[in-house]
Amino acid sequence: MECVVKWVGGMTFMAETGSGHVVTMDGAPEAGGRNLAPRPMEMMLAGAGGCTAFDVVLILKRSRQDVIDCTVSLKAERADTDPKVFTRIAFHYTVTGRNLKPDSVERAIKLSYEKYCSATIMLGKTAEIEHTWEIVEA
After folding, report:
1. What pTM did the predictor assign?
2. For the chain, which residues make up each domain, given as ranges?
3. Which of 21, 40, 89, 126 is 20 to 30 A distant from 76 in Cα terms?
4. Residue 11 · residue 23 · CB < 8 Å
5. InterPro entries this protein is in (predicted)?
6. Which CATH class is domain 1-38?
């Protein structure tokens, strides 16, 4: 996996991923940014949410569950002093589908955070991780 991050002025940076996609990041105004794009740490949190949502949907589909939507809401706390690592992250999954089995949803989430989601497992080295979930019948 590769990525090139280029400073484009102020406190704005462009990241080009190995798959050829471009993402903009910017700093907070108090740090010289112009608030034009997500902060780098927000991107890390979003990446963890995307990683686990991907896993959960894939596992449920492979389990022949009729999943139609999956939303992961994340709330994180960071250390007060540098390095301001994540110290706590709460993941809340809202999984929507038809006749979803609660055991299957719980299993998919557990497999993601215990085995498959590299981002969450990595962040779990510094942060206390909490997972909650709910099912919405479509």
Report:
1. 0.94
2. 1-38, 40-137
3. 21
4. no
5. KH_dom-like_a/b (IPR015946), OsmC/Ohr_fam (IPR003718), OsmC/Ohrsf (IPR036102)
6. mainly beta
